[in-house]
Design brief:
Layout (H helix, E strand, L loop, with lengths): L83 E2 L8 E7 L3 E6 L5 E7 L4 H14 L7 E7 L2 E7 L1 E3 L2 E5 H5 L7 H20 L2 E2 L8 E4 L4 E3 L6 E2 L7 H16 L21 H8 L6 H5 L9 H20 L10
Parallel strand pairs: 1-5
Antiparallel strand pairs: 2-3, 3-4, 4-6, 5-6, 7-8, 8-10, 9-12, 10-11
Helix pairs in contact: 3-4, 4-5
């Protein structure tokens, strides 16, 4: 299967699925990218994109530094363009087990021993999904899952993503973290959400909607760093303020973290006022996700003025490593599959 360039402007892993209900376009449109119009004035603000056979842009514009935790600052430098290799991914990767995130992914290791996540795409929209992944990779967006390799083999396309940031820092599903017994503190909640907002604000600044913001499409590392997945269903929108779907999605993610229940439709509301008082910053942030008009508006909320960030990170890291990581990788150690 060959990758063909089209005269469209488009622009995220693994994990695609239903989106929160909203007055935006329905989820059936999540993977359709509109062709750019010559009369669309927003196109004048967009820079030309390099060919997949050329070197990518050398750096990315940063709309704000106000809530980026120090450890997740985006790296600036030459961006590697990921080209499709016409061979089997299993010639260089070793399969280990599958994880059921929004969609199933295969966890494998490279020859150097690092974990990666492999997504298989097939069907008429496979080429389009991989093109979007390549486009987002060129954007070099912070807090998004990195695409490492692409393969075309026996009628399917395979996208290989990072699943281990460093030798000792592995990625886990945020949905698994959300369901652990202990509830997050308000500061830990803020530490997680600000990284998600950081990635979505960059995405919105490029004129894109993620469209499937949910815990199953978000990964958290054993050091507390966030990576957003599900990039293959991003679509270009006219606004650079962020979509209603993404804003509401943040609300549902917040609810899942606060209440340990995955509910991505209906009203966004607090369900346990004894644990989360109505006057707390966490609850006030949750409530404004139903009325906010931009990702930037959410990012300016007082919830993200918390202090002792390194201490918050240390506490979060210790708990993830002691509880979540052990469960997530139990399959690899020979226990029953999830």
């Amino acid at each position: 299967m060959s990758l063909q360039r089209r005269d469209t402007r488009f622009g995220i892993l693994s994990i695609r699925g239903a989106t929160p209900d909203s007055d935006e376009n329905e989820s059936s449109e999540a993977c359709r990218l509109p062709a750019a119009s010559d009369n669309d004035s927003s196109n004048k603000l967009k820079r030309p994109w390099v060919s997949l056979d050329e070197e990518g842009p050398s750096e990315t514009r940063r709309p704000s530094d106000r809530f980026i935790p120090q450890a997740v600052q985006p790296k600036v430098g030459t961006i590697r363009v990921v080209r499709i290799q016409h061979s089997s991914p299993w010639e260089s990767l070793i399969k280990h087990f599958s994880l059921s995130l929004e969609d199933s992914v295969t966890i494998a290791t490279r020859k150097d021993g690092l974990f990666v996540a492999v997504r298989e795409f097939s069907g008429p929209d496979a080429d389009q999904k991989v093109r979007i992944l390549q486009r987002i990779q060129q954007e070099n967006l912070p807090n998004f899952l990195a695409l490492q390799e692409c393969f075309s083999f026996e009628g399917s396309l395979y996208a290989v993503f990072e699943h281990e940031l460093t030798r000792n820092e592995k990625l886990l599903s945020l949905s698994r973290y959300a369901l652990i017994k202990r509830y997050p503190t308000e500061s830990q909640l803020a530490f997680i959400l600000e990284q998600v907002l950081n990635g979505l604000e960059y995405l919105a600044s490029r004129g894109f909607e993620h469209g499937a913001v949910r815990c199953k499409n978000i990964l958290i590392s054993t050091d507390g760093n966030i990576r957003i997945a599900g990039q293959e269903c991003c679509r270009e929108i006219g606004s650079r303020r962020g979509s209603v779907k993404d804003i509401r999605g943040i609300g549902y993610v917040t609810m899942e973290l606060m209440h340990k229940e995955a509910k991505y439709d209906g009203p966004i509301q607090v369900r346990d006022v004894s644990r989360w008082p109505l006057d707390s910053k966490a609850v006030q942030f949750l409530l404004i996700t139903e009325s906010a008009h931009s990702i930037e508006e959410l990012a300016k909320h007082p919830l993200f003025t918390y202090k002792r960030r390194e201490s918050v990170r240390d506490d979060l890291r210790e708990y993830i490593r002691a509880n979540v990581y052990r469960s997530e990788f139990s399959v690899f150690r020979g226990n029953d599959e999830e």
